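Today's session is about reading a structure prediction critically. Students often jump straight to the picture, but the first step is always the sequence itself: look for stretches that repeat, for charged clusters, for runs of hydrophobic residues. Only then move on to the predicted structure, which in these notes is written as discrete structure tokens rather than atom positions. Here is the chain we will use throughout the hour.
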Amino acid sequence: MLSPTALIDRFEENAAFVQRVFGEIPEERLRERRVADKWSAHENLAHLGQFHQAIRDRVNWIVTQDNPTFERYQPDADPGTRAWAAKPSARMLADFVTARRDLVEFLRGLPAEAWARPGTHGTFGTLTLAGWLEFWLQHEGHHIYVAMVRAKT
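Below is the predicted structure for this chain, in token form.
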């Protein structure tokens, strides 16, 4: 398992990568639905932007409750995802970087004991806060990859 410092560094690095890779791609290309019934690159990135709030909520639950249980996040049912997707790509990427900076600052402020606190997902079981953050980084990596494929092929 990654250390808290390494996890925070990865969250920062991913934000810089997203800005660097997608910041130069034209809006039309990012929004193009290249696979029927699948999210565009823009929609994948909008999901990641909105997911900051879900991460923040879940971190708060883990830190303030005894082994909270949470269910699968449903991005299509979250009006925030649509709000993020409605933004122009440049604005969305800038807001992503801002949301990430806020999340990183929040994570840096957590006491050392918070990283070992458990939280339980209805499907995936129980992990520590550090484990969940690593899991969410993997989830984010999947969406970054899909967005790259959709934007660049």
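Discussion point for the tutorial: Residues 20 and 74 are 28 Å apart (CA to CA).
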